[in-house]
UniProtKB/TrEMBL annotation:
The lineage of its organism: Bacteria, Bacillati, Actinomycetota, Actinomycetes, Micromonosporales. Residues 375-388 have a biased composition (Basic and acidic residues). The keyword Glycosyltransferase applies. Transmembrane segments: none annotated. It catalyses: [GlcNAc-(1->4)-Mur2Ac(oyl-L-Ala-gamma-D-Glu-L-Lys-D-Ala-D-Ala)](n)-di-trans,octa-cis-undecaprenyl diphosphate + beta-D-GlcNAc-(1->4)-Mur2Ac(oyl-L-Ala-gamma-D-Glu-L-Lys-D-Ala-D-Ala)-di-trans,octa-cis-undecaprenyl diphosphate = [GlcNAc-(1->4)-Mur2Ac(oyl-L-Ala-gamma-D-Glu-L-Lys-D-Ala-D-Ala)](n+1)-di-trans,octa-cis-undecaprenyl diphosphate + di-trans,octa-cis-undecaprenyl diphosphate + H(+); Preferential cleavage: (Ac)2-L-Lys-D-Ala-|-D-Ala. Also transpeptidation of peptidyl-alanyl moieties that are N-acyl substituents of D-alanine. This is Penicillin-binding protein. Keywords: Carboxypeptidase, Glycosyltransferase, Hydrolase, Multifunctional enzyme, Protease, Transferase. Residues 62-245 form the Glycosyl transferase family domain. Residues 351-646 form the Penicillin-binding protein transpeptidase domain. It comes from the Bacteria. Pfam families: Transgly (PF00912), Transpeptidase (PF00905). Residues 371-392 are annotated as: Disordered. The keyword Hydrolase applies.
Length: 699
């Protein structure tokens, strides 16, 4: 008991960096009780670290995510001046004490008694580290407050834990942890972030004067901030640290003299944070970044809900290599902007996907990814007169992800009817007479009936009238052929096929019509009256390119934890492709043979007639298949194209006002955009051929 009392008395004395009256009434008994209720060992939670997100090359930084900008740095990777400077600045007897410095305590006690308050502290570097560790490990605001409150109890706890830390860790280990936890101002936690923010360099490259400046900031980052107009306080503090280093003989008098004469020279930088901070010259990457972030929020590996997962992205210190290919992105954006500039109310966008993996290689749209809508154009919906539209600046997920429903995809939806028919055993040669107007078996949706109570679609051109097969019907996009084909196999089969290939219903109308009860009567489904996103449609055709192997859209190549290991969920790499055989390979091959008719490339097994998008093969001059699509009145205009190596989908629409017609003049825009992008992206790749279907699905 006497030993315990002596220890308490010593610790109470050590706590006298506070006003003496704050401890006078505590006494040995109270101190003993306080000590007995304190933890005997410091619980250290790894501090939050910045996550870095790169392009597919693993070198091009897209952005970072953080709450506190921090990245762990080994002591060996820090400038030797830095270690000397922090010891000189904060704890000159660091290598002599065991966590609590009696001389420092006595000195502080005298100074504080004379001042009648706290004029000088007695915290060692180890005690400061303990305080940081307690702060970073706090799970509640109350715990965080206790870690930093100005009380004797807090001081006693720091002292006890500092002694324990010194018994467990070496001096170098304490210094390394301290320098990775300290706050330097400007949201920079740890020396790596501080070196970046103030000097735009790595910690190992800090000079004597730079190291002294940063070491001096720890005491009071705001008071000694060198980035203010008045650098006097920062200069005085830096010079104090340099002078202390000279007194400790860790630098020579000559070095000190030279350093003291030098001016403060900063190279300030603001590390990007989140998607709105993507570099201005690559602003187009923001839409891909936003898609990645949306995907991350859906991954159970990173938390039980979207909020937890995003918090983990900002704290987890991950190294993420995304699937975005900067070169393909450059081609895609160039061809998008050639057709429709950023100042247009019509959005023109394109997504490129890799067949067999689902990896999203490019997301380009004629918009700036920005929250600033001050100079945006007028809203195109007259009912919103006076409001600004979402062009040229927006953060809306125009290409996929988030909660946007997408756009009506028109005749591109005929691919689902085609696949459902082939899967049911109908061959490509299946023929129907296709009149200009057809009286279907489907009851019309609420509203004026087209012919009595039935839905009566018509073709866009009288030249489509006649007997058609799947080859010619798909190549020419004959509406009245495909409604008959849909009736033969069942509209619900086409709806279920779309779901199998990744489409999700987001509007109330689509959700209702896609139900088991209503899907059999959804005749207009084959003509693309439902909404879809460019990511979804690009991935549908990527599935055909991969001969029926469906892979979930994936925006990443790898995700590594701070220790270099790969992120895993349920014994599976989070970044690994998630694929399965959605339709049989021969069914996919048969659909591709019909889709070749569209592009002018020509079918391997049948007769096409003319195709709606023959210009695509004219541009690409390599094996290519696809499908175009427009909606009634040209509200939207789509094209999805693919080769065995790449698939792409492009659209034109007004996201603010779906009733704003794109017009016939924009009907070929998406076709050229996809063709030119695929051509450029594949210019150094071999011309791979599609595998033709077997006889049983041809004839």
């Amino acid at each position: 008991m006497l030993i315990r009392a002596g220890l308490i008395a010593g610790l109470v004395l050590a706590g006298l960096s506070y006003p003496f009256t704050a401890l006078a009434g505590m006494g040995v008994k109270a101190g003993t009780e306080a000590l007995e209720n304190m933890p005997e060992q410091l619980t250290e939670t790894p501090p939050a670290q910045t996550s870095y997100v790169y392009a597919a090359d693993g070198k091009t930084l897209l952005t970072m995510f953080y709450e506190e900008h921090r990245k762990h740095t080994d002591l060996d990777d820090m400038s030797p001046y830095l270690v000397k400077a922090i010891v000189a600045s904060e704890d000159t007897r660091f290598y002599e004490h065991n966590g609590v410095d009696p001389k420092g305590v006595a000195r502080a006690f005298v100074a504080n008694q004379q001042a009648g308050g706290v004029s000088q502290g007695a915290s060692t570097l180890t005690m400061q580290y303990v305080r940081m560790a307690l702060r970073d490990s706090a799970k509640t605001p109350t715990e965080a407050l206790k870690a930093t409150e100005q009380t004797a109890t807090r001081k006693l706890r720091e002292m006890r834990l500092a002694i324990e830390v010194e018994q467990r860790l070496s001096k170098d280990e304490i210094l390394e942890r301290y320098l990775n936890a300290a706050y330097f101002g400007h949201r920079a936690y740890g020396i790596f972030a501080a070196s970046q923010v103030f000097f735009s360099k790595a910690p190992r490259d800090l000079t004597l004067t730079e190291a002294a400046l940063l070491a001096g900031l720890v005491k009071a980052p705001s008071a000694y901030d060198p980035a203010t107009n008045d650098r006097g306080a920062a200069l005085d503090r830096r010079n104090y640290v340099i002078d202390q280093m000279r007194k400790m003989n860790t630098i020579t008098a000559e070095q000190a003299a030279t350093a003291l004469k030098s001016r403060i020279r900063l190279k300030l930088s603001t590390p990007p944070n989140d998607c709105v901070s993507v570099a201005e010259k690559h602003n187009d990457w923001g839409f891909f970044c936003d898609y990645f972030k949306s995907w991350w929020r859906e991954q159970p590996a990173f938390g039980s809900n979207p909020q937890e997962r995003e918090a983990q992205l900002r704290r987890g210190g991950y190294r993420v290599v995304t699937s975005m290919d900067p070169e393909i992105q450059r081609y895609a954006l160039r061809h998008v902007l050639e057709k429709e500039g950023r100042g247009s109310p019509f959005a023109h966008g394109q997504v490129v996907v890799q067949p067999g993996t689902g990896r999203v290689l490019s997301m380009a749209v004629n918009r700036n990814y920005s929250l600033d809508q001050e100079d945006n154009g007028r809203h195109t919906d007259r009912r919103k007169d006076g409001e600004k539209g979402n062009y040229p600046n927006t953060v809306n997920p125009l290409l996929g992800g988030g909660d946007m429903a997408g756009y009506q995809a028109g005749s591109t939806f005929k691919i689902f009817t085609l696949l459902a028919a082939l899967e049911s055993g109908l061959p490509l040669s299946t023929s129907f007479y296709a009149p200009q107007r057809f009286v279907s078996q489907y009851i019309t949706a609420p509203g004026p009936a087209t012919c009595g109570i039935y839905w009566c679609p018509k073709n866009s051109s009288e030249s489509m009238t006649g007997t058609q097969t799947m080859w010619s019907g798909f190549g020419k996009s004959v509406n009245t052929y495909f409604v008959q084909l849909e009736q033969r196999v069942g509209a619900d089969k086409a709806v279920r096929m779309a779901e199998r290939l990744g489409l999700r219903w987001r509007t109330a109308v689509d959700k209702e019509l896609a139900t088991k009860e209503h899907a059999p009567g959804w005749g207009a489904f084959t003509l693309g009256v439902s909404d879809a996103t460019p990511v979804e449609m690009a991935n549908v055709f990527a599935t055909l390119a991969a001969e029926g192997r469906y892979c979930e859209p994936l925006p990443v190549l790898s995700i590594r934890n701070p220790d270099g290991t790969h992120a895993v969920h349920q014994e599976r790499l989070v970044a690994a492709p998630r694929c399965h055989q959605a339709v049989k390979a021969n069914v996919a091959r048969a659909a591709t043979d019909a889709a070749r008719c569209v592009t002018g490339y020509g079918a391997a097994r049948g007769h096409c007639g003319w195709g709606t998008s023959s210009l695509v093969y004219g541009v690409m001059q390599r094996p290519v298949a696809g499908k175009s699509g427009t909606t009634d009145g040209n509200k939207t205009a789509w094209f999805s194209g693919y080769t065995p190596q790449l698939a792409a989908s492009a659209f034109v629409a007004d996201p603010d006002n779906p009733e704003h017609l794109v017009g016939s003049g924009r009907s070929t825009m998406s076709k050229y955009t996809v063709a030119q992008t695929l051509r450029d992206a594949l210019q150094d790749q071999p011309q791979l051929k599609f595998t033709p279907p077997s006889d049983n699905l041809a004839w």
